[in-house]
Amino acid sequence: MTAALAASPPAVQSLPRTPASDVKKLGWRGVMRTVGREGRVLVTNHDQPEAVILSTDEYQRLVQAAESAQARQQDALQALRQRFDERLTALAADDAGARLRAAFAQPATLDGQVLAGQTH
Q: InterPro entries recorded for this chain (predicted)?
């Protein structure tokens, strides 16, 4: 493995490879046979990674995985927004100022413990 390929991410290093000269020598059909068999192939030029050719099935799988990851991220963000909004509504209550003043008026009793929030 060359230095350039060794510096590539592991996902690139593990791909089946074909040199660019094979694309010329075997033609597009020859390369596509490899893509059909493997789902993807890394094309190298002088042992340098140049391109990855994907089958349409493999491309669709990657797109679906990316969309699924994005949906999970959006769901987590929405849940965070909802929790924040629920906490924020307590500050909008009519008695919020009075409750805050009452809380500050009471002496803190930590019993030797440091409190960092609800989850700590």
A: YefM-like_sf
Of 24, 26, 36, 92, the closest CA to residue 16 belongs to 36
pLDDT tens digit sequence for 46-93: 888 888 999 999 999 999 999 999 999 999 999 999 999 988 888 888
If residue 27 lies in a helix (H) or strand (E), which one and from where to where? Answer: helix 20-38
pLDDT on residue 24:
84
Q: How far apart are CA 35 and CA 23, in angstroms?
A: 12
Q: What structural domains does the chain harbor? A: 3-55 (3.40.1620)
**Strand locations in the chain (E):** 17-19, 40-45, 48-54
pTM of structure: 0.57
CB 16, CB 40: distance < 8 Å: yes
Q: What is the band of 119 on the pLDDT scale with cuts at 50, 70, 90? A: low
CB count, 10 Å around CB of 35?
A: 19
